[in-house]
């Protein structure tokens, strides 16, 4: 799969001395969905703003489909669509007029068929003649997406696109994202809804304090860092874990009525069979067994907290 967005040693330090981005190196593949995760203030929006030409970098370079975002700005920006966090539209314009205007800004010839497809995909066609000021917050968010798609970008940035929107819009948006990927559009998203990244993304990047700390295929990341948890529901509660069970990293939970055992999801020897045999030999009866695998959110929290502790 070819690279459509190439970021090399990209950095940003403000006049105040604040380093918002440490040198970032990242290649985004054509047609993939890439999720950029990180806590508030980590540098996600700064990175997106530089690539989209809103913020000037302190160093490094970015190529968008082979076009340098500084030296060949106009061609690079034609390749990129951005749905920002904040709603920013001309409230007095109609939906149709503002989407048409966005297409023209990028030098695209009028294409009413394309504009209609975009508006219909976002359930905006019936609202096309309404002034934006009359729309609900969710509908305004749909207009922002339509504006970003008006000039047929090959790279689409979605910066916290579903924050505070209704369930229907979220469902419509992810259906649209899937269709765009089928058409070869590359989607880079930031989100606080990590379950969305887990469902949608091909690859995941985690950024913390301006540093890209991991980039990995989502499935590989979950295999590499994922843990499984075995919950043993005991017939009779324990007040403490017997010393003879010291070979297993066990925890008591639910007032002593559960034993929690966490193990490597990819390990050949999980340690579960000998643990259960040992419980039987000790006369510790159990009612039920339950296994649960780490989610992407668990892995994200683990990565960020580990780096925080290392830096302390």
Automatic annotation (TrEMBL):
InterPro entries: AAA+_ATPase, ABC_transporter-like_ATP-bd, ABC_transporter-like_CS, ABC_transporter_ATP-binding, P-loop_NTPase
Stretches assigned to the ABC transporter domain: 5-234
GO molecular function: ATP binding; ATP hydrolysis activity
Keyword Ribosomal protein found: no
Keywords noted in UniProt: ATP-binding, Nucleotide-binding, Transport
Protein name (database record): ABC-2 type transport system ATP-binding protein
Organism phylogeny: Bacteria, Pseudomonadati, Pseudomonadota, Gammaproteobacteria, Nevskiales
